[in-house]
Design brief:
- The complex is a heterodimer.
- By secondary structure, chain A is mainly β.
- Chain A contains no helices and eleven strands.
- In chain A, strands 2, 4, 5, 6, 9, 10 and 11 form a seven-stranded mixed beta sheet that branches. In chain A, strands 1-3-8-7 form a four-stranded antiparallel beta sheet, with no helix packed on it.
- In chain A, strand 5 and strand 6 form a beta hairpin.
- Chain A is globular and about 35 Å long.
- Chain B is an all-beta fold.
- Chain B contains no helices and eleven strands.
- In chain B, the strands form two sheets. In chain B, strands 2, 4, 5, 9, 10 and 11 form a six-stranded mixed beta sheet that branches.
- Chain B is globular, with a radius of gyration of 14 Å.
- The termini of chain B are far apart.
- Classes of the chains: A mainly beta, B mainly beta.
- Chains A and B meet through strand 5 and strand 10 of A and strand 5 and strand 10 of B.
């Protein structure tokens, strides 16, 4: 168990809808990362927050947004959902801001999103 | 643009064999190379990592070999066991700001170790 929790585990919704995925980082971790894992694209970095502020953006669509709250939990909002958004969404956390060399990212169990 | 290329996509070995997974990178600014292990239904978990100032690192049955000039690194699993059956991801990141400081993953290798 990594100490990172994600809810819900599974989510089934329809095209055009909006969903919110939730992540609680490990105790003491200030950085939260969101990743999308699909069969064709693999694991892709979406966005990082550090202590409530956006720190880095990756391949995140404009229909997607995220935020990190004062208690450090994070939410990933996916709107105007398309079939191609079906994927596993992982949250990871790390201790500090850099998220770079030498800093381990701890992954949660993921949320499996199915858009019908 | 795929910055970290991983091969093979899948690998089947017998128990006790030594599976080798290879990764190649393009960005010379990368200076941290972790390997993650992922079991079905679970999130990836850090297995072992290396910096480019060493050519090899061992942790238990897992060894990373690193070739800076070739921009390649590989994972060797000694005396592989059925419990090692999982998907393995290599990754890379660079110190500094922006998304380059975040992990760029290879596409993964599904390893199956037969009893």
């Amino acid at each position: 168990d990594s100490g990172v929790t994600q809810t819900p585990k599974h989510l089934i919704t329809a095209t055009g809808q909006r969903v919110t995925l939730r992540c609680s980082p490990r105790s003491g971790d200030l950085s939260v990362y969101w990743y999308q894992q699909s069969l064709d694209q693999g694991l892709q970095f979406l966005i990082q927050y550090y202590n409530g502020e956006e720190r880095a953006k990756g391949n995140i669509l404009e229909r997607f947004s995220a935020q990190q709250f004062p208690d450090l939990h994070s939410e990933l909002n996916l709107s105007s959902l398309e079939l191609g958004d079906s994927a596993l969404y992982f949250c990871a956390s790390s201790v500090s801001r850099t998220g770079g060399p030498g800093e381990t990212q701890y992954f949660g169990p993921g949320t499996r999103l199915l858009v019908l | 643009q795929q910055q970290v290329k991983q091969s093979p996509q899948s690998l089947i070995v017998q128990k006790g064999g030594i599976p080798i997974i290879n990764c190649a990178y393009e960005n010379t600014a990368f200076d941290y190379f972790p390997w993650y292990q992922q079991f079905p239904g679970k999130g990836p978990a850090l297995l072992i990592a290396i910096r480019p100032d060493v050519s090899e690192k061992k942790e238990g049955r897992f060894t990373i070999s690193f070739n800076k000039s070739a921009k390649q690194f590989s994972l060797h699993i000694m005396d592989s066991q059925p419990g090692d059956s999982a998907t393995y991801f290599c990754a890379a990141s660079a110190e500094g700001g922006g998304s380059q400081g975040n992990l760029i993953f290879g596409k993964g290798t599904k390893l199956s170790v037969k009893p």
